[in-house]
Amino acid sequence: MKKKKINLRDLEPKKQQGEHSHDDGHNHSSPEEISNFRTYLPAIFSFVMLIAGIAIDYFDAFPFFKGWIRVVWYTVAYIPVGFPVIREGWKSIKNGDFFTEFFLMSIATLGAFALGEYPEGVAVMLFYAVGELFQNAAVNRAKGNIKALLDVRPNEALVYRDGDFVSVNPETVEIGEKIQVRVGEKVPLDGILLSEKGSFNTAALTGESKPDTIAKGDTVFAGSINLDGVIEIETTKEFKDSSIARILDMVQNATARKSKTELFIRKFARIYTPIVVFLAIGLTFLPYFFVDDYVFRDWLYRALIFLVISCPCALVISIPLGYFGGLGAASRNGILFKGASFLDAMTQVNTVVMDKTGTVTKGVFKIKEINSITFEEAEFMKYLMAMEEQSTHPIAKAILEYKADGSDYEATDVSEVAGKGLKGTVNGKTVLVGNKALMTSNGIEVPSETDGIVESIVMVSIDGNFAGYVTIADELKDDAHQAIKQIRDSGISKIIMLSGDKDSITRQVAKELNIDWAKGGLLPEDKLNEVEELKKQPETKVAFIGDGINDAPVLAASGVGIAMGGLGSDVAIETADVIIQTDQPSKIARAIKIGRSTRRIVWQNIGLAFGVKVIVLILGAGGLATMWEAVFADVGVALLAILNAVRLQRMSW
After folding, report:
1. How far apart are CA 71 and CA 52, in angstroms?
2. Alpha helices, DSSP H only, in 291-339?
3. Helix axes 313-332, 264-285, angle to 10 degrees
4. Residue 355 annotated among the catalytic residues of the structure
């Protein structure tokens, strides 16, 4: 049986739908608040009409409240909550799906009206509508906290045409044309660098935390961000074939392959609902053959009570209430689930695969080690910082964060040695700052101990002598070690790291964090292939954690995709099933625990609903329960389910 959403907003004027809230800091009602109020207005109206009608009936306050006036009163109370359900039931019947809860609710409540039990009919439908509002609120609350997808592909390209660079749509640029990219802009199409050199942030594409410096003739990928100077590129691919377009296409394909966990009630009701309908029909007509004083109206009333009691609406309500509690508890812990099914899916995960840069590391450079040979550390750093002040490279910025006492040194005659580093004069001494190739080309002997260093290394020579080196590394997040320990403690059997960063760096970080297995130097399609291979293993349920555009295809293909929401790319956030708002990897284990607690409470609610139903079904079939008792049985179940779900708000994980 398909379970659709009943949205009472369908009865509103269309212009009220889709309005957004803009918080201006004042106490005025926002359009979204007004829209939300109108969503609840039909249920509020029906509730007021029902209570007023029952009060008039009970106190007999108005003698004229009889006959057709009473029928019209309760009909008006019924329509706002009953019409959407009847309409969905009719749609389902036209689609060949007869046995839905919409059909059951419609038959039971309209039957109650036919028997003159108007308050019961309104009460049953009103309670069902309130349950649907709870369910819709859960989904809308989660969606309202999720960042919208922004297309990361550049929407313009500066192309050289008719002797000048003009701005055009990247889709109109042909292979072989020359484009210009300014500082801070994204490269719109794949191509070959025509300028002498360029520095690019490729973290979104490869996960590589270190900016990529390339020379003339090297390949530049679309989606890279130009960090240094205006550059020119000759395009080698059309816009639709660019690297960023290919990644977005993989996201769409992976999403299409992804199957989500069905909620229990949907599977159960396919079998349960037809049985209930036929039992109700039997309860109406079969007693004719076995009971001497058979009265059709009495047995029809019992059958309608049976339908109300056995209708899965209490289950349909109590289950979302449990998930609503779980979604709310997760939100308060900085974790956003995009739907109840992902709370369920999280409980099945036994293998966690994670990216490195931006997931367990901060994605920014920090000095890891200073090794000075011929000078005191502070003196050594003054020479190095004097040189790096002439550079705009991110590694230079990390070095300049070092705090040195005393007067600063000044570098003169600084020149750049392409692809190797800097050469200049500080305090009358010739200083070289750069990589091993710079040292070797100037006849400087480098200690063999530097060969085993996997981090980025800046070597320094002063007056022809090797003076020392500084290692620069992407810093681990404060809670990275705690996160891995907690993930293991939550019962995860295998933790894997896949990264676009260098394999040696990836493996070193994995070793430091006690991660089972790691692999670096991976392109987006390589990560996707690794996860697809894991998924082929029986009983393996994979959760992938990432933050970049390059992670989006894997986030979509994995059993549960988890994105870092603070610094993560918009595509990763949109593609993922779970968002960690605070960027803390330690929240991953908490998400698993919240999912398990939610599932446990949901099953408690299911057991409670079934237990109460069985008791009242027996009473109803024996004529010992009225429709009011059937309604209150459902109300009692829902109230207990609410109280049970509220426990999630008070739990700590």
Report:
1. 14
2. 296-310, 313-332
3. 160
4. yes
Cα gap 22→577, rounded to integer Å: 26
Neighbouring residues of 363: CB distance < 8 A, sequence distance ≥ 6: 203, 209, 357, 474, 567
* 619-634 tens-digit pLDDT: 777 777 776 677 666 6
| CA atoms in the 13 A half-sphere facing the CB of 465 | 8
Classify 185 as helix, strand or coil. coil
Please give the distance of CA 271 from its chain centroid, rounded to a whole number.
33
Q: Where in the chain is the domain with CATH 3.40.1110.10?
A: 363-475
Contact by Cβ (8 Å): 185, 233: no
Could you tell me the strand order of the sheet in which 197-201 lies? 212-215, 197-201, 225-226
Residues of the chain with confidence (pLDDT) below 50: 1-30, 142-151, 250-252, 254-262
What are 398-416's pLDDT values in tens digits?
898 887 766 678 899 999 8
Tokens of 202: 């490729």
Taking the domain 174-237, which CATH number applies? 2.70.150.10
Q: pLDDT tens digits, residue range 144-163?
A: 433 333 345 567 899 999 88
Asked if 433 and 388 touch (Cβ cutoff 8 Å), the reply is yes
Annotated catalytic residue, options 212, 355, 474, 501: 355
Domain spanning 338-361+476-596 has what CATH number? 3.40.50.1000
> Are 103 and 89 within 8 A, CB to CB?
yes
pTM of the model: 0.60
Residue type, 266: R
Residue with tokens 């810093």: 475
Query: Per CATH, which fold does 363-475 belong to?
Result: Calcium-transporting ATPase, cytoplasmic domain N (3.40.1110)
